[in-house]
Amino acid sequence: MATLNQNFTKFEEDTFFIQFTITDVDTDLTDYNVYWACHTSPTSSGNPLSVKTSGSWDSIDYVGGAEWTAAQTVRISISQSDFIDGPLNHGTLQTGSFYHELVIGSLNNGEDSVVVSNGTFTVDPSLFTEKGGR
Predict the structure, then answer these.
(1) Which stretches within the chain are classed as H helix?
(2) Using one digit for the tens of pLDDT, what is the confidence trace for 33-59?
(3) Cα separation, 132 vs 103, whole angstroms
(4) CA distance linking residue 112 with residue 54, whole number of Å
(5) Is 75 helix (H, G, I), strand (E, B) or coil?
(6) What pLDDT digit, counting tens, does each position of 3-19 carry?
(7) Which residues are registered as beta bridge partners of 104?
(8) Distance in angstroms (rounded) separating the CA atoms of residues 128 and 8
(9) How far is CA 58 from the centre of its chain?
(10) What's the pLDDT tens digit per position in 50-87?
């Protein structure tokens, strides 16, 4: 079952990890791939703002930044460049609230992929950066 409304806030210049622990499965997930994406809305089409994967499956190419740290724990690395250099950003910092979703699936083209978490990911400007008023 998916964990809904897992909301996170990132401030400009922050670098950190988001960690998800999947507790309601009987299967060892070590050989599964992870796909985490951040979009402008839950119904967005086209390229996501930011993507992290642990490997390729189906039409999703390997990007990196997502890993299994234990059999059922997923760690997603987040940095400032994820919200500047993404396909929708055109070299500018994207701030505001975005929709994020974590999906896992087997290495067999993700045929059994399932959403395990979603929510809002907010990127706020910082008071201690040039844009924020330093």
Answers:
(1) none
(2) 888 988 887 887 667 888 888 887 666
(3) 34
(4) 16
(5) strand
(6) 778 898 888 778 888 98
(7) 34, 114
(8) 20
(9) 18
(10) 888 888 766 666 677 888 877 788 999 888 777 765 55
What's the number of CA atoms in the CB half-sphere (13 Å) around residue 1? Answer: 4
Q: 35 is written with which tokens?
A: 């796909």
81 φ/ψ angles, rounded to the nearest 5 degrees = -65, -20
- Count of beta carbons in the 10 Å neighbourhood of residue 29: 19
Give long-range contacts, CB 8 A cutoff, 24+ apart: 124-130. 124/9, 124/10, 124/11, 124/12, 124/95, 125/11, 125/12, 125/93, 125/95, 126/11, 126/12, 126/13, 126/14, 128/13, 129/12, 129/13
What domains does the chain contain, in order, with CATH numbers? 8-124 (2.60.40.10)
